[in-house]
Amino acid sequence: MTTETPARGERTARFDPGSYERKWQDRWEADGLYRANDDDPKPKRYVLTMYPYPSGDLHIGHWYAATAPDIVARMHRMRGDNVMFPMGFDSFGIPAENAAIARNIHPAIWTNANIERMRTQFRTIGAMFDWEREVVTSDPLYYRWTQWLFVQFYKAGLAYRAMGAVDWCPKDKVVLAREQVVGVERRCWRCDTPVEKRDLEQWWFRTTKYADEMLDFSGIDWPEPIKLMQTNWIGRSEGAEIDFAVEEATAEPIRVFTTRPDTIFGATFMVLAPEHSLVERLTTDDRRTDVAAYVANARRQTEIDRLNTEREKTGTFIGAYAINPMTDERIPIWIADYVLPGYGTGAIMAVPAHDERDYAFARRFELPIRHVVAPRDGEPQPDAAYVSHTDDEVLIDSGSFSGMAADEGGLAITARLAELGRGETAVTYRIRDWLVSRQRYWGAPVPIVYCAEHGAQPVPEDQLPVLLPEDVDFAPTGVSPLQSHEAFLAATCPVCGGPARRETDTLDTFVDSSWYFLRYVSPRDAEQAWDPEALARWLPVNLYTGGAEHAVMHLLYSRFFVKALRDMGHLSFDEPFEKLRNQGQILGADHQRMSKSRGNVQNPDDLTARYGSDAVRLFLMFIGPWDQGGPWNSSGIEGVHRFLGRVWGVAQPAALRGTAEIPGAPEELVRALHRATHTTIAGVTQDYEAFHFNTAIAKLMELTNAIVRARESGLSPTDAYAEAVDTLLLLLAPAAPHISEELWQRRGRPYSVHQQAWPVADPVLAAADVIELPVQVDGKLREKLVVTPDTPADEIERMALASEHVQRYLAGRTPRRVIQIPGKLVNIVTPRD
RNA sequence: GCCGGAGUGGCGGAAUGGCAGACGCGUCGGUCUCAAACACCGAUGAGUGCAAGCUCGUGUGGGUUCGACUCCCACCUCCGGCACCA
To answer: Above 0.90 for ipTM, yes or no?
Structure first.
């Protein structure tokens, strides 16, 4: 699409992005313009966007995600930083394997072909990626170090193998980490299939060790919602663990966790999870049949059913009694599936008067309900009621603790229990350890061998990588194809040299992505995971961008990795990403997530071919706030295309237009152009920094419109005009790198526009000569005064009161007050009636 | 249920205590053209008026303030996250 720009005199070049965009992409690449050098003395800045999964084709979302950090990276580079902005591929994972099964292509071939295609497509964005640093996680050069890291974690006791009730995706036939199971419906994060529970022996990373430290976000600039999501996910609860003796003297006490030790006088029964280890021993003979039936049934329940809060409470009495350590009262012990085996101690003291779930259970099974806290000045509650928690409540009917404030009483009760040796303060977390093993082929093999005599042994570091064999059968059998590969299975025990069997599980791809940002500093180092000097120079990442959907997966795991590696002595910083910004999602025109099955995917290639990369970049950034995303509607791209056409028009060298000499351009017009130029510098700089790309582009449009008007007034031969145009190109360069480079060159400026210094606003030139001051009467706009900014307040007041319009609304009354906000407005307040 | 985010013209959005609707899309009118497309110029929140203007207007209802899209209280709707977590 080309546009004839209006020309005075001689012909000007046509605006045709197709004629120059590719040329500049090739030139930048040939010149290594965006290579980040380790020995550059300028201050370093590491800008990173989450690397993609090589699914096949670049879509509009990739453009959206890449353009914003590219703008910021480019601006920082122009401001004098040594910027590293690398890109790579998260290339292990199940889709490649599914493609292999469906189409009989080896995952490596499928993956590499996709990477090849996406690399080419990525180039059309015109981003300043340093491709020399590319990482590909399925490359043995990379996964060798993923395996090496696993071995380090194993040796440090942070990787372990254990039996667990794990989440299993029946479609992908693979276990999932707790973080990868989404929503109430408990669905697989990747394929949306409801997961099942299975008891399996698996490999785990001890993320819980860093639960507390990961609650601390001081020193990192992250969006509040992400910090909150991580905080909630980690789910720290403070309270007490309390031992309840069992009536049968030989049995060990039941330990419960509670956040409300203040309510212990109201504990009228106990509930154990059906899976609790004491159930078998405590159940009396007469209750054994019922209890066994209940336990069996609970085991058969899907987790969805079990976690359904709407469902009526179920449970059964096991025949045994415990002793409330504060009241010495004999209370019955029940089992119920609303108590979860994996949280706290898997047992609770039930306080039905002050806990909704216990209340529902007590009502159902006619158990006693006793109030032990009450609002300080509240009405007495009927016995059968549930009393919700309030800020100001006191203990009642709680022995010597009665009358104490609830929180204070909780501490006092816990202290008393500690004296008695019956309890202590305790903290529990909801976060679980990270399940990292996967029963699939296309991942980094877990570098472990099993020896009949010496058990699980890590593969010695000099034998890494454990390579994936290529000649495997991908028939969907439900087990990893590695399990039937005899040559792969056969291994040697590193301790005794005897025969051993190789682990056939591979690592979760989130293990790969938990450290890729470290590998970019020395991506081809064959001797080590990273060059420590280069790491010290570049890390931590100064700016990280990506989707908020990774809040409790990738972003949490990466923090865990860095903290663990720090404690192992491999690096010396605490957080991977100093500043994080999330992009919103670009939805289809139907307001749904773009997906091939919905057929609402917008292909950027057609748009790029029609309007050019710059227009697509600008349009995506102009839609609205970047963190908001929104439905796709391509009709607006015409607007940015027209804008670029105007930029093209005003930036043509004056000689080309054959403009006649304008004698003495009016000085106020020149000042107005200066003012527009310098206010735009300040505004755009601020907006880019704040990720307000939509308003930055609006300001660039305004400056362009001002330049168009200036040209029409005959200002094009002036220095102010040349400065305005040059400034426009410099400010536009990060967002629309191709047209800026092309016009910069056509104006005879030195290559490259992307290596020029960022313009600096002159506050004197930016200052307004006159301001328009709104005058309100009782808060309603009635007049506008045009004054110089230094007009004294009393003069402004006199002018305002003298105004005919103001006089009309005053109607002879004397103003009660005159409020002046300097430079902003005048408000005249009339007397009240 | 709990925790976040959001609600402004026909549409995307701007304004974080001070002129609501910047910038753009769309629409209408015009210029250019044999005609169209492109481009350019003008208008464009609603109501009312010949007009200057006036009245209303930022999800709803209250409040604070000289002044509220912006702050406070109560609610409604949509989006996201978490959810028998004791």
So the answer is: yes
The predicted model scores a pTM of 0.92
Tell me which residues from 77 to 106 on chain A have a beta carbon below 7 angstroms from nucleic acid strand B.
Answer: none
Q: Is A115 helix (H, G, I), strand (E, B) or coil?
A: helix
A90-145 confidence digits (pLDDT tens)? 999 988 988 888 888 899 999 999 999 999 999 999 999 999 999 999 999 999 99
CB neighbours of residue A245 within 10 Å: 17
DSSP string, A152-187: HHHHTT-EEEEEEEEEEETTTTEEE-GGGEETTTTE
Nucleotide minimizing C1' to CA distance for residue A593: B79
Within residues 626-655 of protein chain A, the ones with CB less than 7 A from nucleic strand B are: 628, 630, 633, 635-636, 638-643, 645-646
Angstrom distance (rounded) from CA A649 to CA A711: 10
CA-CA distances (angstroms) from residue A583 to A69, A579, A587? 10, 13, 12
Residues 393-452 of A with CB under 7 A from strand B: 428, 430
CA of A778 to C1' of B62 (A): 22
CA-to-CA distance for A511 and A445, rounded, in angstroms? 12
3-state secondary structure A315-384: CEEEEEEEECCCCCCEEEEEECCCCCCCCCCCEEEECCCCCHHHHHHHHHHCCCCCCCEEECCCCCCCCC
The answer to whether A581 and A624 have CB atoms below 8 angstroms apart is: no
